[in-house]
């Protein structure tokens, strides 16, 4: 099982001027530790559960571009992009630019979006949930069409219409940047994973719950004729052990996931200065998980 790190707070003690150096240090620490994934949230306001809208928040893809320039091996992505925030043609271009400039290390993490306050606060339309899922599926189709060099042409959907789907330069990743869909909804989200995604991300409450979600995903794959084993499975660990730096408690928490085929556990510490934490906690986690394989 590999280890990822999700940076989700930007309230550095040194304020905004200190964030660039901290993020560069976090990227260096992640690569030195053997961390395979580095992500940020796609929010414009900080979540209410993580400090509230008045707390500092950086735009995701600007931040990922900065991290790309300060790393060389770690995979980069938003966990996850809100489908409502960017027109899908522009999103495909943004993700492609990240992939090109990072040397093929971009993942398009994407989901149906949920944070109504930031939509309303910044004047971004916030459609009902059913429509957001319709837009999510159309966005996935648009991205795949833009990443297919033989498929330039119009796209006609219910919500989006594109006269051209040019994307030059093409992604470095083959055949295209990895698509990761976040969420565990059994009827819609996991069906979209089975149909379009290269990876999924689940936020588990227990290993039994994850096992059930993966069984649902397998059934969707069977229905669609998709090879279940070709989908990379990841989980976002939100337990207190990571933030507290309790390695033994973390290893106990994660033990039940070992036999489920989880490729990557993404640690989500609610810490504003993650570089030192990566060195002190994430690095030993990488070593312990490697020893347990």
Would you write up a description of this structure?
- This protein is an alpha/beta fold and 293 residues long.
- The chain contains ten helices and eleven strands.
- The protein has helices at 19-33, 60-69, 88-101, 116-122, 129-146, 189-196, 207-224, 240-244, 247-254, 274-292, and strands at 2-7, 37-40, 75-78, 81-82, 106-111, 155-156, 161-162, 178-182, 199-202, 232-237, 264-267.
- Strands 1-2-3-5-8-9-10-11 form an eight-stranded parallel beta barrel, surrounded by four helices. It has a two-stranded antiparallel sheet with strand order 6-7.
- Strand 2 (37-40), helix 2 and strand 3 form a beta-alpha-beta unit.
- Helix 1 (19-33) packs parallel to helix 10 (274-292) and helix 3 (88-101) packs across helix 5 (129-146).
- The protein is globular and about 50 Å long.
- The relative contact order is 0.16.
Q: Which structural class best describes the helix and strand composition?
A: alpha/beta
* Fraction of residues in β-strands: 15-25%
Compute the separation of the termini in Å: 7 Å
Mean pLDDT: 96
Which strands sit side by side, in order, in the main sheet? 1-2-3-5-8-9-10-11
Number of discrete helical segments: 10
**What's the number of extended β-strand segments?**
11
Q: Which residue ranges are poorly predicted, with pLDDT under 50 across at least 5 consecutive positions? A: none
The run of helices and strands is EHEHEEHEHHEEEHEHEHHEH
């Amino acid at each position: 099982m590999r280890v990822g790190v999700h940076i989700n707070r930007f309230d550095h003690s040194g304020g905004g001027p200190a964030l660039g150096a901290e993020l560069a240090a976090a990227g260096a620490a992640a690569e030195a530790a053997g961390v395979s994934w580095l992500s940020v949230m796609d929010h414009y306001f900080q979540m209410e559960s993580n400090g509230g809208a008045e707390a500092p928040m950086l735009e995701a893809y600007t931040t990922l571009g900065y991290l790309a320039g300060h790393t060389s091996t770690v995979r980069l992505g938003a966990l996850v992009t809100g489908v409502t925030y960017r027109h899908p043609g522009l999103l495909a271009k943004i993700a492609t630019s990240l992939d090109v400039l990072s040397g093929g290390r971009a993942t398009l993490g994407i989901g149906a979006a949920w944070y109504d306050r930031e939509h309303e606060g910044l004047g971004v339309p916030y459609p009902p949930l059913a429509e957001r899922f319709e837009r999510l599926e159309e966005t996935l189709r648009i991205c795949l069409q833009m990443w297919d060099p033989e498929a330039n042409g119009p796209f006609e959907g219910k919500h989006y219409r594109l006269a051209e789907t040019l994307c030059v330069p093409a992604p470095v990743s083959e055949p295209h940047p990895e698509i990761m869909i976040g969420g565990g909804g059994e009827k819609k989200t996991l069906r979209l994973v089975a149909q379009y995604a290269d990876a999924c991300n689940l936020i588990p409450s227990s290993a039994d719950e994850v096992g059930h979600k993966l069984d649902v995903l397998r059934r969707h794959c069977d229905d669609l004729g998709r090879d279940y084993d070709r989908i990379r499975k990841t989980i976002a660990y939100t337990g207190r052990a990571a933030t507290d730096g309790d390695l033994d408690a973390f290893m106990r928490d994660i033990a039940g996931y070992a036999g489920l085929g989880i490729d990557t556990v993404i640690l989500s510490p609610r810490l504003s200065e993650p570089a030192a934490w990566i060195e002190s906690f994430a690095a030993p986690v990488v070593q312990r998980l490697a020893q347990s394989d």
